[in-house]
Design goal:
- The chain is of the alpha/beta class and about 500 residues long.
- It folds into two domains: about 350 residues, Alpha-Beta Barrel (TIM Barrel), CATH 3.20.20; about 100 residues, uronate isomerase, domain 2, chain A (Orthogonal Bundle), CATH 1.10.2020.10.
- The strands form four sheets. A four-stranded parallel sheet has the order 6-7-10-11, with helices on one face.
- Helix 18 links the parallel strand 10 and strand 11.
- Helix 2 packs across helix 20, helix 12 packs across helix 13 and helix 19 packs across helix 20.
Length: about 500
Amino acid sequence: MGVASQTESARARTVSLDRDDLELHEDRFFDPDPSIRSVARLLYEETRDLPLICPHGHVEPRMLAENQPFPEPTALIVIPDHYIFRMLYSRGIPLESLGVPSRDGTVVEQDPRKIWQLFAENFYLFRGTPSGVWLAHELHEVFGVRRRLSARTAQAIYDEIAEKLASPEFRPRALFERFNIEVLTTTDAATDTLDHHRAIRESGWKGTVLPAFRPDAVLRIATPAWNAEIEALATLHGSPIAEYEEFIVALEGRRAFFRSMGATSTDHGVVEPHTERLPIAIAEALFQKARIGRATPEDQRRFEAHMLMEMARMSVEDGLVMQIHAGSFRDHNDQVFTRFGMDKGADIPLATEYTRNLRALLNAYGNDPRLMLVLFTLDESTYARELAPLAGHYPALRLGPPWWFHDSPQGMTRFREATTETAGIYNTAGFNDDTRAFCSIPARHDLNRRLDANFLAGLVARHMVDVGDALEMARALAYDLVRETYRLEGVAGRGARGA
């Protein structure tokens, strides 16, 4: 290559690296093969504008109850998002400098502009990650930003977003409607009063926000806070809980209250999905051992396994959809947990077994059409080996979409490739975004709809299904299956057929 050509090449690279324009290619995530890409475009166009069903996530209901303006860009986008600060921390950036609140009195950065600048200077770390994809979509589509986030553009973009957040069009309820969210479900402790949900219902606003019953804290009998949780449960129940059977009655009462507030689902986070039916005498003995503060981790393992059986029984009786999120080693980093508390990015996936662990529950309730059980995993190796065969047999079982570490372009594609042959698509639960980051919701749904369209286009190109089949399958994956799985028939649907 001559000197001139080398100079031209270097100049092209410099222009490429220096350009500030933020552009989202209309064919992003589609296969470069034109025979697949053209069908993917067609399928995506049929689903891109369908309403969003968000049946599982961690958006705070207070935000929608109060409908106050978001404070500023850093508090909205950076500080609450463990995807963001996990990556930055892995590169040696202290959580204190990112403004993550401490629980041990550690002083953290309070200047949102400094935090935003630090985030922007390190935004390159998110190249090729799902977080990078979501953030680019959020900046471009939600906030109308047309410049790449970088050290050079950081403050101008901060000002642009801050100005918009101050306008009525960017308040939480306005964004909820703009995002075309049909249903949003929060995740709420068994001892939550649901006051914010009540406030939403009584406000006259037409948005549909439902609670989900999550009893984890009252089932973990070996934790230091368990007795306090039981006292809180007793207060809401209206009578003391001195015995195991009173505990069961209290949980049934709380589930009934959640249902009265619109809940259609429960959620259970467990290290392993072990299920075991204990004799009542043993369950009582474990309960009493916990009441005097002597329960061991093994006691908790057995009690939780028994209570998953009880939760399934209750779901058969009251119709609440049961979700199990298994396989996360929580708070792996002791130092981060001690200083900053839970949900700070120090949770790591574990190898997880389902076939033996779930056999007791599935033999007891898996053939009962009244149960709907949705399974999520962080162990991808189980998709083809265990989960797809289980879901391809038991009528009560559905496979949840890729969760957390695998809610990514490659993870979503691997999920379809590993499960469709055995379980089909109709034994899966559609999509949910499982997010705390409210403004990323449309980005996550858009990514999934594009990747499902691309997967189905590949089936069309290989003549496994025709375009008509693929159109119906795309709609099912984007909208119909999640409404069916989470029993939202009674919730008015803007995307329903014929609407």
